[in-house]
Amino acid sequence: MLDHILSILIFFPALAAILGFIVHKDSMRAYGIIVATVEFVLSLWLWYSFDASISGMQFMEQANLIPAFGISYLLGVDGISLFIIIMASFFTMLGIATLTETRRIKDLIITLLFLQMTMIGVFAALDAILFYVFWELSLVPMLLIIGIWGGPLRIYASVKFFLYTFAGSLVMLVGMLFMAYFYYQATGQWSFSLLEWYRLILPENIQYWLFVAFFFGFAIKVPMFPFHTWLPYAHGQAPTIGSVILAAVLLKMGTYAFIRFSLPLFPDASVFFMYPVAILAIIMIIYTAMVAYAQKDIKQVVAYSSVSHMGVIVLGTFALNVEGITGSVFLMIAHGIVSGALFLLVGVIYDRRHTKLMSEFGGLAHVMPKYALIFGIMMMASVGLPLTINFVGEFLSLLGFYKQSHMMTLLAGTAIIVGAIYMLAAYKKAFFGDVTKEENKNLKDVNKTELLGLIPLTIIAIWLGIYPKPVLEPINNSVEAVVQLMHDKAISPEAKSTIPSIVKFETQEAH
Amino acid sequence: MLEAVNVSLASLNVATLVPMTIAVVGALAIIVIDLIKGGLDKSLYVMISMLFLLLDLGAVMGSAGVFAANGTQLGFFDVMLIDGLAILAQIVIVVASMMFIPLALTSKRFHEFSYPEFFALFLFMIAGFQFMVASDNLILIFVGLETASLALYPMIALHNRSKSFEAAVKYFTMGALAAGLFAFGSMVLYALTGSVEIHQIAAVLAADGYANMGYVLVGTVMLLASFAFKLSLVPFHTWTPDVYEGSSAALAGYMSIVPKIAGFVVAMRLFEFLIHSGVVWLEVILYAMVVITMTMANIWAIVQTDVKRMLAYSSVSHAGFVMSAVLIGTTQANTGLFLYWALFSFANLGAFTMLWVSRQKVLLPGQSSDHPFEKFSGMFQTSPIQATLMALFMLTLAGLPPFALFWGKLYLIGAAVSGGFTVLALIMALNSAVAGYYYLKLIVYMFMKEPLNEGQNYLVNASTSLKAIIGMAAVASIFLFLAVSPMIEFIGGFVYNSGY
Amino acid sequence: MMEITLQHYLILSTVLFVIGLIGVMRRKNLLLLFFATEILLNAVNIAFAAISSYYGDMTGQMFAFFIIAIAASEVAVGLGLLVLWYKRTGKIDLDTMTSMKG
Amino acid sequence: MELYLYTALFAPIVGSLFAALFGMSKKNIIAGLVPSALLFVSWLASLKLLIYILGGGEEVHVELMTWMATGDLYVPYGFIVDQVSVTMMMVVTTVSTVVHVYSIGYMDHDKGFNRFFAWLSAFVFSMMVLVMSDNFLGLFIGWEGVGVCSWGLIGFWYHKETATWAANEAFIMNRIADLAMLIGIFLVYWNTGSIQYHEAFAAMPALDTSVLTAMGIFLFIGAMGKSAQFPLHTWLADAMEGPTPVSALIHAATMVTAGVYLVVRANPLYDLIPDVGLFIASLGAFVAMFAATMALVNRDMKRIIAYSTLSQLGYMFVAAGLGAYWVALFHLMAHAFFKALLFLGAGNVMHAMHDELDPFKMGDLKTSMKWTWIFMTLASVALAGIYPLAGFFSKDLILEVSFVEHHYILYTVLLLTAGLTAFYSFRLVALIFHGDDRHTENGVHPHEAYNFMLYAMLPLAILAVVAGMIFKTPYYEMVTQVLPAVEYHIHNHTTFWIMTIGTQLFVIASIVYAYKKYAKAVKVDKKVESGLLYQLLYNQYFIPQFYEEYFTKTYRELSEMMWKLDMKVVDATVDGVANVFHGTGKATHEMQNGNLSTMLRWMVIGTVVLLALAAAFTFGQSEGVVKMLSGLGAI
Question: Is the ipTM of this complex over 0.95?
Answer without folding.
Answer: no
